[in-house]
Design brief:
single chain; mainly alpha; 2 domains
Length: about 325
């Protein structure tokens, strides 16, 4: 049974961690929450390129940066190896654990998750939820209880390899109390536990650590500069690599084209290289168009035939004495 809706609690805007997120991260979170591939365990396909294609002004790099912000704030967890992303608090707020049939659908979706890390995080969240809400319908189901008895780990225990293995470990204090649990999407405490052991529900403040895994944002492209012009270096390059191209005309065409074009392909990291590629293509077109066309070849053949016929007539007349 496919999902046809998503639950978003309006109290999300009372959460300071949510409000502190940049706009792009909020957009990505809502996109994942309503994405067609999101299953009943709160896991969706992680394809940054496809997600970026849903918005004309978004790149895969933008999606990656926004995901890092969400993961640092514990809203999602991305497994790059299996191309899956988990909305960590999905089971807490969606309401499906209160419905017996949907709880079984969650178990079935859990079995289809490729990432062992995501499975352990979900198990950890189920263990916490059972301790807090033991009367929910899901926790009366044998299949759900079997998951609860599995190995659960908090997402902060996983240190992802993002090229910053030496990133500093920052102390962070999480407070878990009745008020924070009433506010959806608030950060929740990861209490240590043994496999299958119920988690304490008393108010507690725990100091935990996590690795700041955010990577420096990649260089982003920009639209063609308004003052784009041919520099002396560009003119020298064109003279050496495309001597037959009218670079003034081609540069004017190049600039007009990119200024008028819209869409996600209008930003470039290096407009100089883009201009060089344009000139090289123009050179290839010049070489192609300089070759004789089929019509030119036919006219040349016809003229040659007439010339040969005239020579034959002249020879014949000479032989018969005319």
């Amino acid at each position: 049974m496919a999902r046809d809706r998503a639950n978003i609690n309006t109290n999300i805007w009372t959460d300071a961690d949510w409000r502190a997120l940049p706009r792009g991260a909020k957009y990505l979170y809502q996109m994942l929450l309503t994405h067609p591939t999101l299953n009943y365990a709160g896991v969706a396909d992680w394809r940054p390129g496809r997600l970026a294609a849903m918005s004309p002004d978004t790149t895969a790099s933008d999606i990656h940066d926004d995901a890092m912000a969400l993961q640092a704030a514990r809203f999602i967890y991305v497994d790059e190896q299996t191309e899956e992303v988990l909305i960590r608090s999905f089971l807490r707020h969606d309401g499906l654990l209160k419905q017996p049939k949907l709880s079984i659908a969650m178990v079935n979706a859990f079995g289809g998750i490729a990432s062992s890390e995501i499975q352990q995080i979900i198990t950890f969240e189920l263990q916490r939820l059972r301790a807090e809400y033991p009367t929910w319908s899901a926790f009366q189901q044998g299949k759900v209880l079997a998951l609860v008895k599995g190995l659960g780990r908090d997402m902060d225990e996983f240190r992802r390899s993002t090229g910053q293995e030496d990133a500093p470990v920052l102390p962070v204090t999480f407070t878990d109390n009745d008020q924070s649990r009433a506010q959806p999407f608030a950060q929740e405490v990861a209490q240590p536990h043994e496999q299958g052991q119920a988690l304490p529900t008393t108010t507690a403040t725990t100091t935990s650590t996590y690795v700041d895994k955010r990577v420096p944002p990649q260089k982003r492209g920009s639209r063609i500069p308004a003052d784009f012009h041919i520099s002396s270096e560009m003119a020298q390059w064109a003279s050496a690599n495309a001597p037959n191209v009218d670079i003034n005309l081609e540069t004017m065409t190049f600039k007009n084209y990119w200024e008028a074009k819209t869409g996600r392909d209008t930003t470039k990291l290096d407009w100089g290289k883009t201009w060089q590629n344009w000139i090289l293509r123009s050179r290839a077109n010049t070489v192609t168009t300089s070759k004789p066309s089929t019509g030119d070849k036919m006219r040349a053949t016809f003229a040659l035939g007439q010339q040969m016929q005239a020579q034959q007539n002249q020879t014949f007349q000479h032989e018969i004495g005319i």
